[in-house]
């Protein structure tokens, strides 16, 4: 469960940095985190 919490924290951290009015995709976030199989 700890690894899962860490993954979700990383996703939250990166998505919170997306500027207001900008969009991205799950795939782009996964590539940024080097977890492309997780998208």
Descriptive report:
The protein is flat. 54% of the residues lie in helices and 0% in strands. The protein has one domain. The two termini are 19 Å apart. It has 2 helices and no strands. The mean pLDDT is 88. The longest helix is centred in the N-terminal third of the chain and has 14 residues, at 2-15. The protein has 39 residues and is mostly helical.
Labels describing this entry:
2 helices, 54% helix, 39 residues, mainly alpha
How much of the sequence lies in strands comes to under 5%
Number of domains: 1
Distance between the termini: 19 Å
Oligomer: single chain
Helical fraction equals 40-55%
Task: Tell me the major beta sheet.
Answer: none
Number of helices: 2
What is the arithmetic mean of pLDDT?
88
Low-confidence stretches: none
Reconstruct the topology from this structure.
Elements: H1 2-15, H2 26-32
What is this structure, in a nutshell?
The chain is an all-alpha fold and 39 residues long. The chain is built from two helices and no strands.
């Amino acid at each position: 469960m700890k690894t899962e919490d860490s993954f979700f924290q990383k996703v939250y951290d990166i998505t919170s940095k997306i500027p207001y009015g900008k969009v991205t995709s799950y795939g782009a976030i996964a590539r940024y985190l080097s977890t492309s199989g997780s998208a």
